[in-house]
Write a structure and sequence with these properties.
The protein is an alpha+beta fold. It has one domain: Translation Initiation Factor IF3, CATH 3.30.110. Strands 1, 2, 3, 4, 5 and 6 form a 6-stranded mixed beta sheet that branches.
Length: about 150
């Protein structure tokens, strides 16, 4: 078994780790929608028959516009960059809209914008992500329609 000295050293090491600022304050970050859509993750998860339009982009003529829906997604940051974790959460949010489009009989999501922790961020080419020490969070709102 462990000697008393070994146990004390392990306890001191654990205390030192626990006292470090491992869980930094949450930070708002903003990333490119196009970069996320061009990622390998998006290419493997998003149906090319479903279109996504951020608020401020013109989707053209649409019909059967639904009420507004929200997708709130998180991704672990462990082993990823902040951008990588945020892209994972963003693509997961788009996948939720894709599933909603299937359910509603639509094929596009329109007027999509970020609304993480009730902080609204509308941009035609960026999304917001709340990055913490261990997790990244992206919440999206938008509508489903048919093109």
């Amino acid at each position: 078994m462990f000697s008393r000295t070994c146990l004390v050293l392990v306890a001191l090491a654990l205390f030192a780790l626990a006292s470090q600022p491992v869980l930094a304050a949450d930070q708002w970050m903003y990333f490119s929608v196009q970069d996320a859509l061009n990622s390998q993750l998006a290419k493997g998860k998003l149906d090319p028959n479903v279109s996504f339009y951020m608020k401020g982009q013109n989707p053209g003529a649409v019909k059967n516009v639904s009420r507004e829906f929200t997708a709130n997604k998180r991704a672990r940051k462990f082993g990823k960059t902040a951008e990588g974790a945020c892209q994972t959460a963003f693509i997961s949010g788009l996948m939720a809209f894709q599933q909603r489009a299937y359910k509603e009989g639509g094929n596009t999501a329109i007027d999509v914008y970020s609304v993480t922790k009730d902080k609204v961020f509308e941009s035609p080419d960026q999304y917001s992500c709340l990055v913490g020490g261990m997790m990244a969070n992206v919440a999206l709102r938008g509508k489903v329609a048919t093109k």
